[in-house]
Specification:
By secondary structure, the protein is an all-alpha fold. It is 51% helix and 0% strand.
């Protein structure tokens, strides 16, 4: 196919290629992937619940630390702005 050929003189099948079916729809094949084993597969329900509670607790702690860091960064930014613009506010 000559890419310098005008679009009107090229056929649609030349532009799209062999992916296009005769019906006009693109062929799509969906093949499910094999499930991957996880550390939760062999756990009992109680063990799984304990693991999720521990995960929730650790996430809450991490979010609280992040909030503290962001608040400290905001205070530092406000102080720096005050030092650079002493007449502001």
């Amino acid at each position: 196919m000559d890419s310098h050929q005008s679009t009107s003189s090229r056929t649609l099948s030349d532009v799209i290629g062999n992916v296009q079916l005769l019906t006009g729809y693109r062929e799509q094949q969906w093949i499910p992937s094999e499930p991957k084993p996880t550390r939760f597969d062999e756990m009992l329900k109680d063990e799984f619940d304990d693991a999720m509670e521990d995960f929730d607790r650790r996430m809450a702690e991490a979010l609280a630390r992040s909030a503290e860091v962001l608040a400290d960064a905001q205070r530092t930014s406000d102080e720096m702005y005050g030092l650079m613009h002493p007449t502001a506010g």
